[in-house]
Amino acid sequence: MYAIRAMIGLCLMGLSILPVRADELDLDALIQEALGNNPNLSVLRARLAAFEAKIPQAGALEDPFFRFEVSNVPLGGFNLSSTPMSGNQFVLSQKFSLPGKQRARERSAQFASESVAWLLRDRELAIANAVKQPFFDLAYVIRAIAIMKKNRVLLQDLIRTARTKYAVGKGLQQDVLKAQVSLSALDTELIDLRAKKQLAEARLNLVLNRSPQSPLGVPPDTIGLSSMPLAVDALLAQADEGHPSLKAMDQSVLMWQAEVEVARRNVWPDMTVSLGYRQRAFAPNDPVGGSDFISVGIGIPLPVFGGRKQRQQIAEARANMRETEAQKAVERQEIHYEIQRLVIEVRKHRESAELFRSAMLPQAEQSLASALSGYRVDKVDFLTLLNNQMTLLNFEMAYYRHVIEHEKRVVDLVAAVGR
Protein backbone atom coordinates (compact mmCIF):
# COMPACT_ATOMS: atom_id res chain seq x y z
CA MET A 1 0.00 0.00 0.00
CA TYR A 2 2.88 2.36 0.67
CA ALA A 3 4.08 1.89 -2.92
CA ILE A 4 0.62 2.81 -4.18
CA ARG A 5 0.52 5.96 -2.09
CA ALA A 6 4.01 6.88 -3.28
CA MET A 7 3.06 6.54 -6.95
CA ILE A 8 -0.16 8.51 -6.49
CA GLY A 9 1.85 11.20 -4.77
CA LEU A 10 4.13 11.23 -7.80
CA CYS A 11 1.14 11.81 -10.06
CA LEU A 12 -0.34 14.47 -7.80
CA MET A 13 2.83 16.51 -8.03
CA GLY A 14 1.86 17.20 -11.66
CA LEU A 15 3.71 17.22 -14.93
CA SER A 16 6.76 19.26 -13.96
CA ILE A 17 8.83 16.53 -12.31
CA LEU A 18 10.10 14.82 -15.41
CA PRO A 19 13.86 14.24 -15.34
CA VAL A 20 16.17 16.92 -16.69
CA ARG A 21 17.48 16.01 -20.15
CA ALA A 22 20.91 16.95 -21.37
CA ASP A 23 19.98 16.57 -25.06
CA GLU A 24 17.31 19.27 -24.95
CA LEU A 25 16.34 20.70 -28.33
CA ASP A 26 16.73 24.43 -28.98
CA LEU A 27 13.80 25.60 -31.10
CA ASP A 28 15.55 28.76 -32.32
CA ALA A 29 18.59 26.74 -33.40
CA LEU A 30 16.36 24.28 -35.27
CA ILE A 31 14.64 27.14 -37.10
CA GLN A 32 17.97 28.64 -38.13
CA GLU A 33 19.14 25.25 -39.37
CA ALA A 34 15.97 24.81 -41.41
CA LEU A 35 16.29 28.29 -42.91
CA GLY A 36 19.89 27.58 -43.87
CA ASN A 37 19.31 24.13 -45.37
CA ASN A 38 15.86 24.22 -46.92
CA PRO A 39 16.13 23.71 -50.72
CA ASN A 40 12.96 25.71 -51.43
CA LEU A 41 14.56 28.75 -49.83
CA SER A 42 17.66 28.22 -51.95
CA VAL A 43 15.46 28.37 -55.04
CA LEU A 44 13.88 31.65 -53.93
CA ARG A 45 17.24 33.15 -52.97
CA ALA A 46 18.60 32.34 -56.42
CA ARG A 47 15.46 33.79 -58.01
CA LEU A 48 15.86 36.96 -55.95
CA ALA A 49 19.48 37.30 -57.09
CA ALA A 50 18.34 36.93 -60.69
CA PHE A 51 15.65 39.62 -60.29
CA GLU A 52 18.10 41.97 -58.61
CA ALA A 53 20.45 41.52 -61.56
CA LYS A 54 17.66 42.62 -63.90
CA ILE A 55 17.37 46.07 -62.30
CA PRO A 56 20.48 47.68 -63.82
CA GLN A 57 19.74 45.95 -67.11
CA ALA A 58 16.27 47.50 -67.28
CA GLY A 59 17.65 51.01 -66.75
CA ALA A 60 20.50 50.70 -69.24
CA LEU A 61 20.47 51.85 -72.86
CA GLU A 62 20.74 49.31 -75.62
CA ASP A 63 24.27 48.56 -76.77
CA PRO A 64 25.62 50.85 -79.50
CA PHE A 65 25.67 49.29 -82.94
CA PHE A 66 28.72 49.39 -85.19
CA ARG A 67 28.57 48.61 -88.90
CA PHE A 68 31.31 48.40 -91.55
CA GLU A 69 30.54 48.66 -95.26
CA VAL A 70 32.43 48.62 -98.48
CA SER A 71 30.08 50.86 -100.43
CA ASN A 72 29.47 51.98 -103.99
CA VAL A 73 32.10 49.73 -105.63
CA PRO A 74 31.44 49.11 -109.39
CA LEU A 75 30.81 45.51 -110.34
CA GLY A 76 32.94 45.87 -113.46
CA GLY A 77 36.10 46.25 -111.44
CA PHE A 78 36.52 46.06 -107.71
CA ASN A 79 38.32 49.35 -107.27
CA LEU A 80 37.60 51.69 -104.36
CA SER A 81 39.14 54.63 -106.25
CA SER A 82 37.03 54.20 -109.40
CA THR A 83 34.25 56.65 -108.41
CA PRO A 84 33.93 59.63 -106.04
CA MET A 85 31.33 57.73 -103.95
CA SER A 86 33.30 54.52 -103.46
CA GLY A 87 34.99 53.82 -100.16
CA ASN A 88 35.02 52.09 -96.79
CA GLN A 89 32.19 53.24 -94.55
CA PHE A 90 32.04 52.98 -90.74
CA VAL A 91 28.67 53.60 -89.04
CA LEU A 92 28.02 53.88 -85.30
CA SER A 93 24.40 54.06 -84.11
CA GLN A 94 22.71 54.33 -80.73
CA LYS A 95 19.04 53.94 -79.80
CA PHE A 96 17.62 56.43 -77.30
CA SER A 97 14.33 56.19 -75.47
CA LEU A 98 12.21 59.18 -74.70
CA PRO A 99 12.74 60.64 -71.20
CA GLY A 100 11.19 58.52 -68.43
CA LYS A 101 10.93 55.20 -70.27
CA GLN A 102 14.21 53.75 -68.96
CA ARG A 103 13.35 54.92 -65.46
CA ALA A 104 9.91 53.28 -65.67
CA ARG A 105 11.49 50.01 -66.79
CA GLU A 106 14.00 50.16 -63.95
CA ARG A 107 11.23 50.84 -61.41
CA SER A 108 9.27 47.88 -62.75
CA ALA A 109 12.30 45.61 -62.29
CA GLN A 110 12.87 47.02 -58.80
CA PHE A 111 9.29 46.32 -57.73
CA ALA A 112 9.48 42.80 -59.18
CA SER A 113 12.64 42.16 -57.18
CA GLU A 114 11.05 43.45 -53.98
CA SER A 115 8.04 41.22 -54.58
CA VAL A 116 10.30 38.16 -54.72
CA ALA A 117 12.08 39.35 -51.56
CA TRP A 118 8.74 39.44 -49.72
CA LEU A 119 7.86 36.00 -51.08
CA LEU A 120 11.16 34.76 -49.68
CA ARG A 121 10.25 36.26 -46.32
CA ASP A 122 6.82 34.61 -46.46
CA ARG A 123 8.43 31.26 -47.22
CA GLU A 124 10.85 31.72 -44.32
CA LEU A 125 7.91 32.21 -41.98
CA ALA A 126 6.27 29.08 -43.37
CA ILE A 127 9.48 27.10 -42.83
CA ALA A 128 9.76 28.37 -39.26
CA ASN A 129 6.18 27.30 -38.60
CA ALA A 130 6.86 23.94 -40.24
CA VAL A 131 9.64 23.40 -37.69
CA LYS A 132 7.49 24.43 -34.74
CA GLN A 133 4.58 22.10 -35.49
CA PRO A 134 6.46 18.75 -35.25
CA PHE A 135 8.55 20.22 -32.43
CA PHE A 136 5.41 20.66 -30.34
CA ASP A 137 4.00 17.32 -31.51
CA LEU A 138 7.20 15.68 -30.31
CA ALA A 139 6.95 17.53 -26.99
CA TYR A 140 3.42 16.25 -26.47
CA VAL A 141 4.21 12.65 -27.38
CA ILE A 142 7.26 12.52 -25.09
CA ARG A 143 5.27 13.99 -22.20
CA ALA A 144 2.37 11.63 -22.90
CA ILE A 145 4.70 8.63 -22.87
CA ALA A 146 6.11 9.76 -19.52
CA ILE A 147 2.60 10.14 -18.07
CA MET A 148 1.63 6.72 -19.41
CA LYS A 149 4.71 5.10 -17.89
CA LYS A 150 4.02 6.64 -14.49
CA ASN A 151 0.46 5.45 -14.55
CA ARG A 152 1.54 2.03 -15.76
CA VAL A 153 3.71 1.64 -12.67
CA LEU A 154 0.81 2.73 -10.50
CA LEU A 155 -1.52 0.30 -12.26
CA GLN A 156 0.95 -2.54 -11.72
CA ASP A 157 0.93 -1.75 -8.01
CA LEU A 158 -2.87 -1.81 -8.03
CA ILE A 159 -2.80 -5.21 -9.72
CA ARG A 160 -0.46 -6.55 -7.04
CA THR A 161 -2.72 -5.17 -4.33
CA ALA A 162 -5.81 -6.69 -5.96
CA ARG A 163 -4.08 -10.06 -6.20
CA THR A 164 -3.06 -9.88 -2.55
CA LYS A 165 -6.61 -9.13 -1.44
CA TYR A 166 -7.96 -11.85 -3.69
CA ALA A 167 -5.47 -14.34 -2.25
CA VAL A 168 -6.68 -13.67 1.31
CA GLY A 169 -10.34 -13.77 0.29
CA LYS A 170 -11.02 -10.02 0.48
CA GLY A 171 -11.07 -9.31 -3.20
CA LEU A 172 -12.52 -10.54 -6.47
CA GLN A 173 -10.79 -12.18 -9.36
CA GLN A 174 -12.78 -9.81 -11.56
CA ASP A 175 -10.80 -6.91 -10.06
CA VAL A 176 -7.52 -8.50 -11.07
CA LEU A 177 -8.75 -9.22 -14.58
CA LYS A 178 -10.13 -5.70 -15.03
CA ALA A 179 -6.84 -4.16 -13.92
CA GLN A 180 -4.92 -6.42 -16.31
CA VAL A 181 -7.20 -5.36 -19.16
CA SER A 182 -6.52 -1.72 -18.28
CA LEU A 183 -2.80 -2.42 -18.22
CA SER A 184 -2.98 -4.01 -21.68
CA ALA A 185 -4.89 -0.93 -22.92
CA LEU A 186 -2.10 1.28 -21.58
CA ASP A 187 0.49 -0.84 -23.37
CA THR A 188 -1.47 -0.47 -26.59
CA GLU A 189 -1.54 3.31 -26.20
CA LEU A 190 2.18 3.32 -25.48
CA ILE A 191 2.81 1.47 -28.74
CA ASP A 192 0.74 4.08 -30.58
CA LEU A 193 2.55 6.96 -28.85
CA ARG A 194 5.99 5.54 -29.68
CA ALA A 195 4.95 5.31 -33.34
CA LYS A 196 3.74 8.93 -33.24
CA LYS A 197 7.06 9.93 -31.68
CA GLN A 198 8.96 8.35 -34.57
CA LEU A 199 6.69 10.08 -37.09
CA ALA A 200 7.16 13.47 -35.40
CA GLU A 201 10.94 12.99 -35.41
CA ALA A 202 10.90 11.99 -39.08
CA ARG A 203 8.79 15.02 -39.98
CA LEU A 204 11.08 17.36 -38.05
CA ASN A 205 14.14 15.85 -39.75
CA LEU A 206 12.44 16.34 -43.11
CA VAL A 207 11.94 20.06 -42.47
CA LEU A 208 15.56 20.30 -41.31
CA ASN A 209 16.65 18.59 -44.56
CA ARG A 210 18.19 15.73 -42.59
CA SER A 211 17.85 12.01 -43.05
CA PRO A 212 14.54 10.82 -41.55
CA GLN A 213 16.47 8.50 -39.22
CA SER A 214 18.81 11.20 -37.89
CA PRO A 215 18.91 11.25 -34.08
CA LEU A 216 17.16 14.10 -32.34
CA GLY A 217 17.10 15.38 -28.81
CA VAL A 218 13.94 16.09 -26.86
CA PRO A 219 11.98 19.33 -26.44
CA PRO A 220 12.18 21.07 -23.06
CA ASP A 221 9.70 19.89 -20.42
CA THR A 222 8.93 23.48 -19.42
CA ILE A 223 6.48 24.18 -22.26
CA GLY A 224 3.42 25.93 -20.89
CA LEU A 225 0.72 28.36 -21.97
CA SER A 226 2.39 31.33 -23.64
CA SER A 227 0.76 34.73 -23.64
CA MET A 228 -0.24 36.58 -26.79
CA PRO A 229 -2.62 39.53 -27.25
CA LEU A 230 -5.78 38.24 -28.90
CA ALA A 231 -7.45 41.50 -29.93
CA VAL A 232 -8.69 40.54 -33.38
CA ASP A 233 -8.82 44.07 -34.81
CA ALA A 234 -5.21 44.72 -33.81
CA LEU A 235 -4.07 41.40 -35.30
CA LEU A 236 -5.91 42.12 -38.55
CA ALA A 237 -4.29 45.54 -38.74
CA GLN A 238 -0.85 44.01 -38.21
CA ALA A 239 -1.49 41.50 -40.98
CA ASP A 240 -2.68 44.21 -43.38
CA GLU A 241 0.39 46.28 -42.62
CA GLY A 242 3.14 43.71 -42.66
CA HIS A 243 2.14 40.27 -43.90
CA PRO A 244 4.83 39.22 -46.42
CA SER A 245 2.33 37.71 -48.83
CA LEU A 246 0.32 40.94 -48.99
CA LYS A 247 3.49 43.02 -49.23
CA ALA A 248 4.63 40.89 -52.16
CA MET A 249 1.34 41.58 -53.94
CA ASP A 250 1.66 45.29 -53.17
CA GLN A 251 5.00 45.28 -54.94
CA SER A 252 3.50 43.36 -57.85
CA VAL A 253 0.79 45.99 -58.20
CA LEU A 254 3.46 48.70 -58.27
CA MET A 255 5.36 46.69 -60.84
CA TRP A 256 2.33 46.56 -63.15
CA GLN A 257 1.73 50.28 -62.61
CA ALA A 258 5.28 50.85 -63.84
CA GLU A 259 4.60 48.51 -66.76
CA VAL A 260 1.54 50.60 -67.64
CA GLU A 261 3.79 53.66 -67.70
CA VAL A 262 6.29 51.82 -69.90
CA ALA A 263 3.52 50.78 -72.30
CA ARG A 264 2.18 54.35 -72.45
CA ARG A 265 5.59 55.68 -73.32
CA ASN A 266 6.00 52.97 -75.97
CA VAL A 267 3.32 54.79 -77.95
CA TRP A 268 6.05 57.35 -78.67
CA PRO A 269 8.76 55.47 -80.57
CA ASP A 270 12.42 55.29 -79.66
CA MET A 271 14.91 57.28 -81.72
CA THR A 272 18.09 55.91 -83.28
CA VAL A 273 20.96 58.33 -83.90
CA SER A 274 23.71 57.24 -86.30
CA LEU A 275 27.08 58.64 -87.23
CA GLY A 276 28.86 57.45 -90.41
CA TYR A 277 32.38 57.97 -91.71
CA ARG A 278 33.35 57.09 -95.32
CA GLN A 279 37.00 56.65 -96.16
CA ARG A 280 37.70 57.38 -99.84
CA ALA A 281 40.64 56.93 -102.20
CA PHE A 282 39.35 58.88 -105.28
CA ALA A 283 41.21 62.09 -106.05
CA PRO A 284 41.23 62.96 -109.82
CA ASN A 285 38.48 65.35 -110.84
CA ASP A 286 36.94 65.11 -107.38
CA PRO A 287 35.15 68.33 -106.46
CA VAL A 288 36.29 67.98 -102.85
CA GLY A 289 39.74 66.76 -103.65
CA GLY A 290 39.31 63.19 -102.28
CA SER A 291 38.15 64.31 -98.86
CA ASP A 292 36.47 61.66 -96.67
CA PHE A 293 32.71 61.89 -95.96
CA ILE A 294 30.80 62.03 -92.71
CA SER A 295 27.08 61.26 -92.33
CA VAL A 296 24.64 61.90 -89.48
CA GLY A 297 21.16 60.34 -89.35
CA ILE A 298 18.10 59.92 -87.16
CA GLY A 299 15.77 56.93 -87.45
CA ILE A 300 12.30 56.66 -85.90
CA PRO A 301 10.00 53.62 -86.23
CA LEU A 302 6.53 54.41 -87.48
CA PRO A 303 3.84 53.04 -85.10
CA VAL A 304 1.42 52.23 -87.88
CA PHE A 305 0.19 49.17 -85.94
CA GLY A 306 -0.18 51.04 -82.65
CA GLY A 307 -3.81 49.98 -82.25
CA ARG A 308 -2.85 46.31 -82.33
CA LYS A 309 0.48 46.58 -80.53
CA GLN A 310 1.31 49.57 -78.28
CA ARG A 311 -2.26 50.26 -77.22
CA GLN A 312 -2.79 46.59 -76.44
CA GLN A 313 0.36 46.59 -74.33
CA ILE A 314 -1.25 49.26 -72.16
CA ALA A 315 -4.45 47.22 -71.87
CA GLU A 316 -2.46 44.08 -71.01
CA ALA A 317 -0.50 45.78 -68.24
CA ARG A 318 -3.64 47.32 -66.74
CA ALA A 319 -5.42 43.95 -66.82
CA ASN A 320 -2.47 42.30 -65.05
CA MET A 321 -2.55 45.05 -62.43
CA ARG A 322 -6.28 44.51 -61.81
CA GLU A 323 -5.71 40.76 -61.56
CA THR A 324 -3.01 41.25 -58.91
CA GLU A 325 -5.22 43.64 -56.95
CA ALA A 326 -8.02 41.09 -57.01
CA GLN A 327 -5.65 38.33 -55.88
CA LYS A 328 -4.53 40.51 -53.01
CA ALA A 329 -8.13 41.09 -51.95
CA VAL A 330 -8.77 37.34 -51.95
CA GLU A 331 -5.55 36.65 -50.03
CA ARG A 332 -6.40 39.34 -47.51
CA GLN A 333 -9.83 37.84 -46.88
CA GLU A 334 -8.33 34.38 -46.37
CA ILE A 335 -5.74 35.77 -43.94
CA HIS A 336 -8.45 37.61 -41.99
CA TYR A 337 -10.52 34.43 -41.74
CA GLU A 338 -7.50 32.41 -40.65
CA ILE A 339 -6.66 34.94 -37.92
CA GLN A 340 -10.25 34.91 -36.65
CA ARG A 341 -10.32 31.10 -36.64
CA LEU A 342 -7.00 30.80 -34.86
CA VAL A 343 -7.97 33.34 -32.20
CA ILE A 344 -11.03 31.20 -31.44
CA GLU A 345 -8.87 28.06 -31.32
CA VAL A 346 -6.28 29.66 -29.05
CA ARG A 347 -8.94 30.87 -26.64
CA LYS A 348 -10.63 27.48 -26.61
CA HIS A 349 -7.46 25.55 -25.78
CA ARG A 350 -6.36 28.14 -23.22
CA GLU A 351 -9.69 28.04 -21.41
CA SER A 352 -9.77 24.24 -21.53
CA ALA A 353 -6.20 23.92 -20.22
CA GLU A 354 -6.86 26.37 -17.40
CA LEU A 355 -10.07 24.51 -16.50
CA PHE A 356 -8.17 21.22 -16.30
CA ARG A 357 -5.37 22.80 -14.28
CA SER A 358 -7.50 24.72 -11.81
CA ALA A 359 -10.50 22.43 -11.36
CA MET A 360 -10.64 19.09 -13.11
CA LEU A 361 -7.13 17.83 -12.28
CA PRO A 362 -7.33 18.78 -8.56
CA GLN A 363 -10.78 17.18 -8.36
CA ALA A 364 -9.56 14.00 -10.03
CA GLU A 365 -6.54 13.89 -7.71
CA GLN A 366 -8.75 14.30 -4.65
CA SER A 367 -11.15 11.68 -5.94
CA LEU A 368 -8.33 9.21 -6.47
CA ALA A 369 -6.86 9.87 -3.03
CA SER A 370 -10.31 9.43 -1.45
CA ALA A 371 -10.94 6.21 -3.37
CA LEU A 372 -7.56 4.87 -2.27
CA SER A 373 -8.35 5.57 1.36
CA GLY A 374 -11.76 3.95 1.01
CA TYR A 375 -10.30 0.93 -0.76
CA ARG A 376 -7.87 0.36 2.08
CA VAL A 377 -10.74 -0.02 4.55
CA ASP A 378 -12.99 -1.90 2.08
CA LYS A 379 -15.44 1.00 1.67
CA VAL A 380 -14.70 1.51 -2.02
CA ASP A 381 -14.61 -1.30 -4.53
CA PHE A 382 -11.61 -1.86 -6.75
CA LEU A 383 -13.36 -0.87 -9.97
CA THR A 384 -14.14 2.56 -8.52
CA LEU A 385 -10.49 2.99 -7.54
CA LEU A 386 -9.37 1.86 -10.97
CA ASN A 387 -11.83 4.18 -12.68
CA ASN A 388 -10.59 7.14 -10.65
CA GLN A 389 -6.99 6.33 -11.51
CA MET A 390 -7.80 6.11 -15.25
CA THR A 391 -9.78 9.36 -15.01
CA LEU A 392 -6.77 11.14 -13.56
CA LEU A 393 -4.62 9.69 -16.35
CA ASN A 394 -7.04 10.92 -19.01
CA PHE A 395 -7.24 14.36 -17.43
CA GLU A 396 -3.44 14.67 -17.32
CA MET A 397 -3.23 13.71 -20.98
CA ALA A 398 -6.05 16.08 -21.92
CA TYR A 399 -4.48 18.96 -19.99
CA TYR A 400 -1.14 18.69 -21.74
CA ARG A 401 -2.81 18.10 -25.10
CA HIS A 402 -4.66 21.41 -24.71
CA VAL A 403 -1.39 23.10 -23.69
CA ILE A 404 0.40 21.83 -26.79
CA GLU A 405 -2.53 22.56 -29.11
CA HIS A 406 -2.62 26.07 -27.64
CA GLU A 407 1.05 26.56 -28.46
CA LYS A 408 0.63 25.16 -31.97
CA ARG A 409 -2.28 27.48 -32.67
CA VAL A 410 -0.32 30.42 -31.25
CA VAL A 411 2.55 29.85 -33.66
CA ASP A 412 -0.01 29.43 -36.46
CA LEU A 413 -1.50 32.76 -35.42
CA VAL A 414 1.91 34.41 -35.42
CA ALA A 415 2.49 33.13 -38.94
CA ALA A 416 -0.98 34.23 -40.07
CA VAL A 417 -0.27 37.75 -38.82
CA GLY A 418 3.00 37.64 -40.73
CA ARG A 419 5.47 38.20 -37.92
Summary tags:
Outer membrane efflux proteins (OEP), 4-stranded antiparallel sheet, alpha+beta, single chain
Care to describe what's here?
With 419 residues, the chain is an alpha+beta fold. The chain has 2 domains: 2-61 and 97-267 and 303-417, Outer membrane efflux proteins (OEP) (Up-down Bundle); 62-96 and 269-302. The chain contains 9 helices and 4 strands. The chain has helices spanning 2-12, 27-37, 39-59, 101-167, 173-207, 232-242, 244-266, 310-376, 382-417, and strands at residues 65-71, 87-96, 271-279, 293-299. The chain has a 4-stranded antiparallel β-sheet with strand order 1-2-3-4, with no helix packed on it.
Q: Kindly, what is the distance between the CA atoms of the first and last residues, rounded to a whole number of angstroms? A: 54 Å
Average pLDDT metric:
85
* Tally of individual domains: 2
What share of the residues lie within helices?
55-70%
Radius of gyration of CA atoms, rounded to a whole number: 39 Å
Q: What is the CATH topology descriptor of the largest domain?
A: Outer membrane efflux proteins (OEP)
Number of strands: 4
In short:
By secondary structure, the chain is of the alpha+beta class.
Which helices and strands, and how do they pair?
Layout: H1 2-12, H2 27-37, H3 39-59, E1 65-71, E2 87-96, H4 101-167, H5 173-207, H6 232-242, H7 244-266, E3 271-279, E4 293-299, H8 310-376, H9 382-417
Antiparallel strand pairs: 1-2, 2-3, 3-4
Helix pairs in contact: 1-4, 1-8, 2-4, 3-4, 4-5, 4-7, 4-9, 5-9, 6-8, 7-8, 8-9
